[in-house]
Design brief:
It is a single chain. The chain has 8 helices and 4 strands. The chain is of the alpha/beta class. It has a 4-stranded parallel sheet with strand order 2-1-3-4, sandwiched between helices. Strand 3, helix 3 and strand 4 form a beta-alpha-beta unit. Helix 1 runs parallel beside helix 6 and helix 4 packs across helix 7. It starts with a strand and ends with a helix.
Length: 176
């Protein structure tokens, strides 16, 4: 089994990797994922971590945040400048935020998700948009995210979100 470290910004990204991605990529790509949160750690610590993984593959996820970055390239460059151990080609930008990937895979025909208006494309979904939607059915965001993990539809997610599709392609090509 191939091992890949996924540097993620925070807790919700880690939930996505642990509860949605891990089993799927293990079964479909033969890849064992290991998330490493980085946002609350100093860059020096993350650079050291990246350097220590030189024998392994890694990807570095970051939200786009189009309010402060006009395009993916500018966000990738900011991450590359901040974390000097990064390989530029390993940076993956989530459009717009990880919540867009969660929402992309929701099949709203399930009872818990009835009434959710999910756009055909979720690339522009921000955390605040997602928070309005999940409160229709759930009191706790973490509970909602774990329920989404139980019914996550990868085909829908790939169709609805271009950065998620790009990420899966990048992941599958790491060992080819």
């Amino acid at each position: 089994m191939n091992k890949v470290f996924i540097y993620v910004e925070g807790n919700h990204d880690k939930i996505f990797v642990n509860f949605i991605l891990s089993e799927y990529v293990r079964n479909n790509m033969g890849i064992d994922l290991h998330p490493i949160p980085y946002a609350q750690k100093p860059p020096k610590s993350i650079n050291k971590s990246i350097r220590s993984k030189f024998k392994f593959e890694y990807l570095f996820l970051s939200d786009l945040d189009s309010r402060t970055h006009p395009c993916i390239t500018s966000m990738k460059q900011e991450r590359f400048d901040k974390y000097d151990a990064l390989d530029y080609s390993k940076i993956i930008i989530v459009k717009e935020e990880i919540e867009s990937w969660f929402l992309a895979g929701v099949d709203n025909s399930f009872d818990k998700f009835k009434g959710w208006e999910i756009p055909c494309r979720t690339d522009s979904i921000e955390k605040e948009d997602f928070d309005k939607i999940y409160k229709i059915s759930f009191d706790s965001k973490n509970d909602c995210l774990k329920e989404i993990a139980k019914i996550y539809n990868f085909d829908l997610a790939i169709e609805r979100n271009s950065s998620f599709k790009y990420f899966l392609n990048k992941l599958s090509n790491l060992f080819n």
